[in-house]
Amino acid sequence: MEQEKTFCKELQDCKEIDLRDNRGKRHKMWLVLLSLTLGLLRKRDGNLSSLHRSIANTNNDLCNFLKIENEGVISRSQLPILLQKVNLLCFEKLLFKHYGIELSEEEKSWFSGDGKELRGSIETGDKRGTAIVQLVRQSDKAVLGQNFYEGKKESEKPTLRDLIKQTGASSEKITADALHLNPEMTELIAGNGGIFMIGLKENQKELLADMRKDASFLTPVNQLVTTQKGHGRIDRRSYFHYDVSWEYFDERWSKSNFQSLFKVIRERYNLTTGKTSTETAFYISNGKYEETEDYFGALRNHWAVEVNNHIRDVTLNEDRLRTKKRV
To answer: Mind listing the pLDDT tens digit for each residue in 24-33?
Structure first.
């Protein structure tokens, strides 16, 4: 609990977190936020009533541990009103400072970057709401950092770039969807000694056409076939790694240092219907083919973010947590 003590002290000292008017304050903001954090750590996320029950159940023990007077628990109806008066950016900063990932200078890790819309923020008549962008470590699905944007007027692309800068992850190994294949992203990572592996689709038509042509006649420097059975289907994935360091790329990609092309053929056989579907995907990277990186594993684990989103939606019921509060 020493970590909680330190976190508690910083919550008390951070005057910027509490945005309430001084009149009529009944509950200590820092204590409510500490109790809320314990609820999140107890995996009560996604349902405000569940979080409130956790606050009530742990309140007595927490007050005894902190050696403070038990002044009672905030009510369920008052909790969202108080939370609206929290400086979310300050609170988030403290959370990641104490409970986030510490990047190792010696060993790079694979992170997946992706966005997810918070459906509870979509107001009646709108199609878009607030979206969250995360960097998730593939090995254990721990979140390195997160950022938000308004889907009606902002974009995921600059939000993920800003998140990579803020977290210092540009020197790590990052996988991302084809949406993020642009010189600003690739230069950011390559220029700081990191490795990127980003999807290649029709949003970069000329580059995709060139890489498809290369893959049609080049001999792979490495390849792997995996088969997995489950959920009423058989999934067969064929991975191919090509050296494209010799290829000429347009001037705008000159600082991206493209080295490797990956092709993944996904074949799915449905055991019930007997039907087979096939999908081919391409990825491009500045990772050198001579290096013994687990590129194929990183491609497979890129869906760590998607799995993380599924857990938050289905298990933690995050999309049921509705809010009109904008970040």
So the answer is: 778 888 889 8
CB neighbourhood size of 239 (10 A): 21
Per-residue pLDDT, 283: 97
Q: What letter represents residue 193's amino acid?
A: G
Beta strands in the chain (DSSP E): 110-117, 130-137, 143-150, 173-176, 195-200, 222-230, 233-243, 260-270, 276-285
Q: How far apart are CA 262 and CA 140, in angstroms?
A: 24
Query: Given 99, 120, 137, which residue is the final one in a domain?
Result: 99
Residue 195 in tokens: 């490795």
pTM (whole model) above 0.85: no
Residues 180 and 220 in one domain: yes
**Tokens linked to 35:** 């109790």
Task: Report whether 86 contacts 33 (CB < 8 A).
Answer: yes
| Cα(255)–Cα(183) distance, integer angstroms | 8
245 exposed, middle or buried (CB, 10 Å; 0-12, 13-18, 19+)?
A: middle
Half-sphere exposure of 144 (CA within 13 A, CB side): 28
Helices marked H in 14-87 — which ranges?
Answer: 29-41, 48-66, 78-83
Is 327 inside any structural domain? no
Residue 266 lies in a domain: yes
DSSP annotation of 169 reads G
- Within 10 Å of residue 259's Cβ, how many Cβ atoms? 20
Closest CA to 250 of 182, 177, 191: 182
